[in-house]
Design a protein that fits this description.
single chain, 2 domains, Ybab, Chain: A, Rossmann fold, alpha/beta, 9 strands
């Protein structure tokens, strides 16, 4: 049975990383066996980009981005009942939909909003360039943290549909439930800091936390590409 690879000394601790760059350096060490391989790192913008940039630099791997957006609850935009990824991959939380008593009309409206957001952000981050050829490649999907996990699931399924030979999830921090859910669809899951409390917030793993703007993420990507 697959297990999540974690740093047991960081289990249930808060403020264990200085910032996303520090987290990326530590994750690179955890995945050092993939250094110099044919793997692609796919970062989920915007917060996943600074983490992934350090990993790509230290492991000498190709860096790209995969756009995914949560499907928001209509009255709670910070919460979601699923996600949409590249190639219009849709993942829904059926239990939450049932509990929230969402109608089909509401679901379709919120899915459309998420789909439009993905397309708009793909224009920003990918400038209408096609995704890389992932067939028979190892794909390492990176974000700055994992709460519910639905955006990550959408990218996992995208990589599968594109023919990846192995799909790996690598995040600095995750809820215990979210990390375990990844095992159902990813080949390997790496998490430095797993927290099992009733409430989980990605930001609590970092000493210095800020929202990463699209402009900042684009600048990091451009710097990474110029250095490679």
């Amino acid at each position: 049975m697959n297990q999540v690879s974690e740093e047991l000394g960081l289990r249930d601790r808060e403020h264990v990383f200085r910032d996303r760059r520090d987290a990326g350096i530590l994750l690179a060490e955890m995945l050092r066996e993939y250094g110099g391989s044919n793997a692609y790192i796919l970062a989920i913008p915007a917060g996943g980009v600074p983490v992934a940039k350090e990993m790509a630099r230290l492991l000498s791997l190709r860096l790209d981005v995969a756009i995914a957006r949560k499907v928001q609850l209509p009255d709670e935009p910070e919460a979601g009942f699923g996600a949409i990824g590249p190639d219009d991959v849709l993942v829904l939380n059926d239990d939450l939909i049932k509990d929230a008593r969402l109608t089909q009309d509401v679901i379709e409206k919120q899915v459309l909003k998420a789909r439009q957001s993905v397309r708009w952000r793909e224009e920003i981050f990918r400038q209408n360039q096609p995704y890389p050829d992932l067939k028979r490649k190892i794909v390492i999907i990176v974000d700055d943290g994992l709460a519910s996990g639905y955006t990550m699931l959408a990218v996992i399924r995208f990589a599968r549909e594109r023919g990846a030979s192995k799909v790996i999830v690598a995040v600095p921090t995750a809820s215990e439930r979210g990390a375990e859910m990844m095992l159902q669809e990813a080949d390997e899951v790496y998490v430095l800091n797993i927290r099992s409390g009733p409430v989980f917030a990605v930001a609590e793993a970092y000493e210095h936390w800020n929202d990463v703007s699209d402009e900042e993420a684009l600048s990091i990507l451009q710097t990474s590409r110029s250095e490679s």
